[in-house]
Amino acid sequence: MLVDADDFGRTEIPSFNVTIKVTEVSNNKPVSHAVVAIFGAEGGGSAYTGKDGIATVYVANAVLEENIQQEYMRIEVFAKGYYLYRDEYGIKLVRV
């Protein structure tokens, strides 16, 4: 996500939505009732997947601190009967 910031001061990121589809690796079947969480840059949000395996996460309160050009947000997905999925660099916020 590109962040419009004219200076290098602390910049609050406008809230945004991220839509993620969760499927089984072996057969691409949607995973329902999985928790999708996004955290980092002092902000975050979470949501559950529906029967179609899709979750829309509302991400709020993220910031780029003074003199920080980019920051990553972690994506985690977990559901009963499945291993935890974690992507430490799932979303990249970039000051432009």
Question: Topology of this structure?
Answer:
Layout lengths: L1 E2 L7 E2 L3 E6 L13 E6 L2 E6 L5 E6 L3 E2 L5 E9 L6 E11 L1
Parallel strand pairs: 1-9
Antiparallel strand pairs: 2-7, 3-6, 4-5, 4-8, 8-9
Main features:
Immunoglobulin-like, 52% strand, 96 residues, single chain
Describe this protein's structure.
The chain contains no helices and nine strands. With 96 residues, it is an all-beta fold. It has a five-stranded mixed sheet, with no helix packed on it. It has a two-stranded antiparallel sheet with strand order 2-7. Strands 3-6 form a two-stranded antiparallel sheet. The protein is elongated, with a radius of gyration of 15 Å.
The overall average pLDDT, rounded, is: 93
Strand count, sense and barrel status of the largest sheet are: 5 strands, mixed
Number of domains: 1
- In the sheet with the most strands, the strands line up as 1-9-8-4-5
Order of helices and strands: EEEEEEEEE
CATH class division: Mainly Beta
Strand content: over 45%
C-alpha-based Rg, rounded: 15 Å
